[in-house]
Amino acid sequence: MRPRPHASRVLAVVGPAGDFDMADFINNPRPITLAAGGQSALAQADLPAGVLQALELIRDVEQAALDWLRDLLITPTHADAEVTAFLTTWAYEKYWLADVLGRVLTDHPGPDAPGPGVRARLAEQAHERLFPTLAAIGTNLLGPRVIAGHLATGLADTFALRVMMIRLAELAPASGELTRAVLHSTERHVAFYTEQIHRRAGTNAPARRSLHRALRGWRWPGSRYAEPRKITAILRYVLGHPTARPLLAQADTALSALPGAPRRAVLRTEFARFVVHGTNGWQLRVQ
Fold it and tell me: Which of 20, 125, 186, 212 has the least C-beta neighbours within 10 A?
């Protein structure tokens, strides 16, 4: 019998409602750490290959957080004091999540997965060399309206992370403590993005258009330069079960409530792009 999604679990995707407190966020960061028992339990657990592949993807995304931050530093978003103050602690918390995931993967070594293909490597190099210049020109011409789009991208990325972690805890109960720590840390990220987006784009038509474009062009974290078949296999494994549907739907409902949001279901459309229309053939590593 397939497990039914529990209401409290579904609510965890968006997190508890409440006002964002910048002073508390800065003075009391929530770095992802595991108690010795939790780390030991993960180290000794027999984690399925699909779970390890998903954790590896998330680790790579968290390690790339500073790259995203670097890209923002050359846009008008960096000139905004509130966003810059938030991103300082945000980057700190991201670092520790990547560190914890790295230690988990070190405890579960497996065969090396194939690296990115030529096309992916060229695309990544083009991004590294050209994007900073193009972004600096384009976004500075548009001005502060782009901030709403950047915030919407951050919110969608956070929902994707929370959905993945909730499902991984179901697939591998030993990762439950890690999932709870991630949800506890990122619930304030959700509160900040949501509050700021409504304040900035609620009555600002250019900001709403920026948000609309950002969510229309949103891609699953880690998928832009990864092997498409790899992402397809991971998303199918983690989110292909019916119990994932309420999680994705709740995230999409929250995104659709944003001012200027597109009609499309953002996460589910991106999920379908890989799993329904994606490329088959990638094999999850077997231990």
Answer: 125
